[in-house]
Structure prediction request, 612 residues.
Amino acid sequence: MCGIFAILQQSPSSFPIKKTLEALKHLEYRGYDSCGIFYKNIDTNNYVMEKSIGKIDQLNPNNTHRVKWVLGHTRWATHGVPCEENAHPHLSYKGDIVLIHNGIIENHKILKSKIGSCIFNGTTDSEILVNYIQYLCDTHPILDFKDILSICSTDIIGSYSIVIYNKNIPDTFFLMKNNTPLVIGNTTNGYQISSDGHTFNDDVNHIIDPPDTSLTILTGRSIAIYNLDDLETLPIIKTKYTHDPTIITGKGEYKHYMLKEIIKQSDTIRSCLRGRLLDGKLTLEELDNNNTLLHTKRLLICACGTSYYSGLIGKYIIEELCDITVDVEQASEYRYRKSHFNKDTTMIVISQSGETADTLGALQKYKKKNGMVISICNVMGSTIAKKADINININVGPEIGVASTKAFTGQLCVLYLFAIWLAEKKQINSQTTISLKESMVKLPSMYEAFIHNNKQHLHNIAKSYRFCDNMLFMGRGYNYPVAMEGALKVKEISYMHAEGYSAAEMKHGPIALIDNMMPVVFIALKDSVYDKVVSNLQEIKSRGGKVICIINENNNELNNLIYDKILIPKIDEQLYPFLCIIPIQLFSYYLALERGCSIDQPRNLAKSVTVE
Prediction:
């Protein structure tokens, strides 16, 4: 989950340092525990290492130094606490090899035992790796460095994207990649290397995405890619890169990226529907020529975190519309347990980044059995998107806030379109699908109206509960997963303990927690289980619980049962998750704001969980 950025160019200038710091700042969504850069000052011929605990703003290198290359890194701690000793770049015990690494080396303890006597400054697997490479150089002095790295790749177990500099091979980068993102941007003056191509600027004209288990060797003027196993030369595949200056333009008028991404979800839905739903006709080009799905008897959805909750809602709508069994599993559990494979099952994996380690592992497990996999991702060209048989992009643009908001609604949108598409192909539930299509195109304007009318109201409610230590979220049917996602949002950004439950399960344990210090966010809409939900509300009220209730406009039946109410318009029952999630996201945001929390970069979290 760390962020890597590096520049190697033909002629020296001060640009690489400035650009690297700028790019690392944009990569802080991947990690912000510590950071560092390494370069060689052309004018003094001295190497410079700068490291700091915390965010990129803590680094203060000399921006006027002329350099040909820079290695940069922002860290999310896996092995070892955040400290300067554990920050990247890492230097080998002889000082010859410098390395930045994203990923995890699972057998680092074995590698460390092979090295022998060596002083380690920190406690990371990455420092062990750079010293192991130095050890291989020392024990195989006649081998070319390319051969050394090939040997290293056979000895290490794990996922990695690595940029290496060897002081004995001037002005050359060595890149190793396996199951972790790393892309190369080709410029007229050399190359930029990054964990995320969105950090490139308009100097980049082409993108090169090295395959897994590859070694790339870069100089300012040349590039060569090899298979790490046998060092056979691989083709260099370039794709045209068009820099979009609107992608990372900051927060604009908003205090946080998260608030911007919540408010702009009307655009999210429009973007997701664009080209897919027009004048009542649904087109999913990714699926339109695929007949396998019509014969699929079971769908298996695998995902993690927020994507898992969107998958649970996807199960509800697909089973209702498509007359097919849908199971949803946490990818982290599925990938490691013994499971039954059925050739009549299609897997759907969901990941915002397309790089989630456990979701990728679940996909690979299923592909080994020759199962068909559909991915729902937000990043074109991501590892999961490339390895799936079919990828459906959610088209919502980069999500910078660590706590997922617009990606959740984008995933829901694609899952609903998928369900409608499959039902239409099967020629079933036509009246329901027609109604859903008509209502989905109205969602963006409903979002805008709701936010305009309720933003301040939600802020006021959040102020009332900012000193609470615990909170429950309750919902039933389609809104049960929404309750779980709401609890996750509160935990992620306000650091308040929260749990999401089916309202029907309240009497099976959670009701013991109810008192006047336990606020309960309750979704009580006029749907097929409304009467049951009202009964659950009465039980909370009788025990002194404080209820924040999401109810339909013009519903005054519950006024005596609730402390605060949030009104949403009536829509098809199946679409209520789209409307319920907006107030929950805003409430979570304002709760964190009032509690003084770091909202865009909450403690201990990173955007893309690319390591286990």
